[in-house]
């Protein structure tokens, strides 16, 4: 079945461009459009999309609040949110990830990257492009722990291997890449990621990546 996509952006021309790109793919179907966050909430309830391609800065309700309501505990449907951003709006991306977005993508990304990002998010993975993640974290390095503070007690619930997996997740690696790095199967990696999320009370690997940096486990610039 085709992946159902809702386009949310206050610029009609951009929505038209995205629609043309996505409808050229056999496995993607644009089921609706919205020009602001409030319309997006109505459309999510009515259309039940799999992925919401979400702009950040919009009138009436911005993408951060719309994302929070779409992915929050009162959510009504399976929709995952892929945030669209430009580098001059980076501060909003961090809030969108905290609000529950499954990843982010630059508005000027090539068409193939946009298509692949939607497929990745629809499959339940996180879209954490390492280059963009690094730039975001470098920008906010002064607001993140220095690494000299004590690590939170919750990290003590993880095994040594689970900590390794968490660090690799924070770098934006996929399950396949983590499996290759640790010389284990993808199934084993999925199990470890599941344990990490459960033990730390996190919703998905995007939240896990944010947690790794905010806790001081990983520092901007570290490999």
Automatic annotation (TrEMBL):
SMART domains: HTH_LUXR, REC
One BP annotation, GO: regulation of DNA-templated transcription
MF terms in GO: DNA binding
Annotated SUPFAM superfamilies: C-terminal effector domain of the bipartite response regulators, CheY-like
InterPro entries for the chain: CheY-like_superfamily, NreC/VraR/RcsB-like_REC, Sig_transdc_resp-reg_C-effctor, Sig_transdc_resp-reg_receiver, Tscrpt_reg_LuxR_C, WalR-like
UniProt entry keywords in alphabetical sequence: DNA-binding, Phosphoprotein, Transcription, Transcription regulation
Keyword Cell division: no
Residue ranges of every copy of the HTH luxR-type domain listed in the record: 151-216
Modified residues (4-aspartylphosphate): 55
Pfam families: GerE, Response_reg
Record-annotated Response regulatory domain positions: 4-122
Coiled coil: none
Gene3D superfamilies on file: 3.40.50.2300
Name of the protein described by the UniProt record: LuxR family transcriptional regulator
Organism of origin: Streptomyces virginiae
